[in-house]
Amino acid sequence: MALRKGAFVLLAVLLLGGCSGEGSPALQAPGAAGAGEFQPDESQPDESQHDESQPDEFQPDESQPDESQPDESNSGKFPATPEDVIAYLQAQKLRNGDIYLENAKVHINIVGLTPEIMSGFAAKYTGDTYELHNVEFTAAELIAVQQELADSGLMARLKLYGSTVDIIRNRLVIDLPDDALEAAEAEIGEHLGSDMLLFAPTALGEPHVTGTIVEIASGSREQAQILIQEPGQPEPTYWFSFDEYSKIYEADGRETGAGGIRQGQQVKIWSTGTINSSLPAQGTVRRLELVEQ
How many domains does the chain fold into? Predict the structure, then answer.
C-alpha cells in the first residue's frame, strides 16, 4: 500500500514536469510563431505604406527656362530701327560712317568704336536687331572727297565713269575704264590721297551702241558730234560728242581722227559711261570703231 502511494506521487511529479517542459506547444511564449502559421516577407516593401522616395506630384525641370516669365536680360530694351538709330547717333554726337540694313539687322558704322559706346547700344537695343562696325571714315568725309573729285575736273580728264560712296566698305569707289587705271591711281592719289578710295576698273567689253551715223555736227574735234540711229529704231537714238581723250579706229584697227568719219558709216561706240537721258540721249565717245562695209 505504501509502495503504491509512493508510485502515485512519483507519477504525478513526472507528469507535472512534462507539462512544464519547453518542448510542449501549449506552453510556448506568447507571440512565438507556431508551426504552419503565415509569416510576412519583410524583405519586400509594404505597398500599403507611403514611399517617400517617389514624388506625389509633377516636379518642373528647373534647369529649363520658364518661358512664362519675362526675359530680364531684355528688360527696358527695344528693337533697333534705322530712324531711331540715326536719332541716337545724333543725340550722342557719335562720329559715324552711316548705317545700312542687311539680314534684318541695322548695321552701324562707328568711327573709333569703344567699349563704352558698345555698352550704350547694348543698354538701349535688343542684341539681335543691330550690329556695330568699327570704321575709319565718316560718311561726311567720304562725301567731301567725292565732291572734291568732281570739282577738280579729274573725272572728265581721266575719263572716269563715276564715283559712289560705298557705306558697307567705308570707301569712295571710283568706276573707270581699265586702260585709265594707272593714270587715275597716280593722279588722284597725288591730289586726294588713296586711303579713302577704291578703284573699280571695267574692261572694254561689248560696245554700248552699234548703229549708223545719220548726221555729223561740224566743229572742232572736241566740239564735233555724231547722231546715231540704231538698227530697228524708227528715229535716231544718240548724240555722241568727242573730247581730247576719245579714240577713233579704222576698220583695220589703225587709229584715225574725227576727219575720217562720214555720214552713213556703220560704227561701234563705247561711251565714257555717263549718258544724258534726253531725246535723243547724249554721251561722250570713249572709243569708236568704224565697221567695214
Answer: 3
The set of cell numbers assigned to 156 is: 572728265
CATH of the domain at 129: 3.30.70
**Number of neighbours of residue 195 by Cβ within 10 angstroms:** 10
pLDDT tens digit sequence for 53-66: 555 555 555 555 55
Q: Are the CB atoms for 226 and 215 separated by under 8 Å?
A: yes
Which residue range(s) make up the domain with 183?
A: 139-202
Give CA separation, 173 vs 170, 176, 196, 201, in Å: 9, 10, 9, 10
Mode of pairing for the β-strands spanning 281-290 and 238-241: parallel
Which residue did the predictor score with more confidence, 115 or 274? 115
pTM over 0.90: no
* 9 assigned to some structural domain: no
Residues 234 and 279 placed together within one structural domain of the fold: yes
- Beta carbons of 211 and 267 less than 8 angstroms apart: yes
Q: Does residue 31 form part of some domain? A: no
- Closest by alpha carbon to 88, among 67, 106, 69? 106
By the 8 A CB rule, do 264 and 251 touch?
no
- How does DSSP assign 199-249, residue by residue? EEEE---S-SEEEEEEEEE-S-TTT-EEEEE-TT-SS--EEEE--TT-EEE
